[in-house]
Amino acid sequence: MCGIAAILSPDPGRPVPEQALRRATAALRHRGPDGERIWVSPTGRAGLGHNLLAITDPEGHQPIASEDGRLHIVVNGQFYDYKRIRTALAAKGHRFRTRSDSEIALHLYEDLGPACLSHLRGQFAMVVWDEESGALFAARDRFGLKPLFYAEKEGRLYLASEAKALFAAGIPASWDPRGVYHALHACPDERISLFAGVSQVPPGHVLHADRSGVRLERYWDLPVPPRRSRLVPFGAAHGPRAARFGRTRGTAPRLDDAIARVRKLTEESVSLRMVAAVPVGCLLSGGLDSSAVLGVAAACVDDPVAAFTVGFERRDYDESRGAREAAAAAGARHTVVTAADADLADHFADAVWHAETIQYNTHGAARYLLSRAVRDAGYKSVLAGEGADEAFFGYEFLRAAAGAGRGSGAGSLPRALTRLPHILSALLRSPSRHYPGLAAASPWLARLALLLPAAPSLFTRLAGGLGQLHAACSRDFLDAFTGYDLYRAYYRRCRRTADLSRREPSRRLLYLWLHSLFANYHLAADRLDMAHGVEVRLPFLDHHLFEYTNSLPVSLLAHHPRDKHLLREAMRQYIPDPVYDRVKRPFMGPSAVGTDGPLHDFLQDTLRGEALRAVPFLDHAAVERLLDRLPTLAAEERPSLDSLLLMLASVAVLQERYRL
Q1: CA 27 to chain centre
Q2: Higher pLDDT, 397 or 415
Q3: 3-state secondary structure of 15
Q4: Which residues, at least 6 apart from 317, have a Cβ–Cβ distance to it below 8 Å?
Q5: Closest Cα partner for 140 from 171, 161, 170?
Q6: What are the Cα distances from residue 122, in Å, to 251, 421, 523, 653?
Q7: Of 531, 529, 524, which is closest to residue 146 (Cα–Cα)?
Q8: pLDDT digits over 181-199, tens only?
Q9: Which of 3, 369, 582, 612 is the most buried (most CB within 10 A)?
Q10: Helices 486-498, 505-513: inter-axial angle, 10-degree rounding
Q11: For the segment 429-466, what is each residue's pLDDT rounded down to a tens digit?
């Protein structure tokens, strides 16, 4: 886990500006406080920078050169199962300069070129420069756990782990209206950013750059699940009863077989991520996912595992009691970091600056404080439970789309069928009557809301929030997007590139989630953790495990009254009874909307300040009117307005901190 930067200058007469490379690398020092190096090629055409966070090799400085000096590489991230690959490469005659896991990518690239990516298992962003061919190759891991931004200026290509490093190198810092529009509407685009001219290498993609230009290419995508002849529901034996779920090709696995396979793959994924030259701890919320990771991790080592939990002074948000139960069951050394409202208010701006995203809740500031406590305790690496909700259909919206909401049995017909008359009549009505805010932004999504009766609350919240959002935006900003239905455009792009028509409806929804808010908001927690030089490893996003769960029938994942039943059964021996029985609760920080208190004061000071007035796409008078309404706000309006005001505060912070 490190920070990387690179500059490519195709024109031999205009070599890489070394000072710009140094500034970019220095801007990432928080990601790798254990060492900092740059290298510029003899021809001056390419430069690479690296900040070291020593996890597997204290002397694993980069860039690393191949034996003949033709290739140089910088890597941000971690490759798992690297010892086996290293042994195989050494047997073929490769000579290693370091003990770092990163070096296997260099020698695999020597042998296989871009095809090396199929052999790499982990979370990574990397850049390889080939001095002989004059080509630069960059890649980002399958799910986008590690970030990689790039920009072009005056014929040069700049790449870095964070956008702030590009600005330090000389890329102008300004808003990208389209990126902002997408982010404000909770549909961030994985290809662009909030900043003009700053793009992202999307998850599962490579970037090729040479004298002919820059191009992106996909190397991995979530596979289309196989068709099956029998989908065996929970509690059903193989036999005629299973045929009720349809007939295509193949045979679905038994529940017992799926449980055993999930257990084995999870154990393998966790054990691989416990390999390091430094102690590895765990982030623990007390829910099923992180408790399962901690339980398996504790079984991998002899000494007690360190577990870290963020708690809140407001009891209605605090889950530390459940975390203590899980930690005690695993025999862990447990640390609870209590975040007071004043702490969240004091560090919200720092969290936004590091994450480079618009924040929808105070949980970003809480994560920032938790990672700081992990670092202060002497830990550089921890495991966490993110990704389990995606792998095992833990979200209610996925279960609803699968026709198996909480409390419905395996044999229930999809609820949409029982509401067919309602759906047909709804199609004849204007969606603006039911979802005016949503219809204003996306008539397509408003109609979709009428077609998904299983999850009305999702669309009700979105519709209310969008109405308030549009009231806070300037008319010129909104007029620039007249006729642009961003949700429909996003869906159509995914449909073209991912063959959505071959995926079941619930898996289409999962795919859309993975490539929007998950990759661009949830996984932006990497930058909150790396703000303190802490790497977070996510076993449930191991692609071997995820591809297996993706191959299972939806019935095994979603058709049970209890969410993530398959994972609960697979992890039963590793978690205590209270965790096994616990209902899923999303990780949310305290609301900032109230009549008094530090968070309320933070919002008032920030949103009435000069920074917000300088934001070109907001109507500051309208924002002040929203603030004036807070004392008389109805309870049902608070959640959406809380998110909106924190988003606007994020915008003000970015405006000021990056001088946009």
Answers
A1: 22
A2: 397
A3: coil
A4: 588, 589, 590
A5: 161
A6: 30, 48, 14, 33
A7: 524
A8: 999 998 898 999 999 999 9
A9: 3
A10: 110
A11: 444 554 556 566 666 666 555 444 444 444 555 556 77
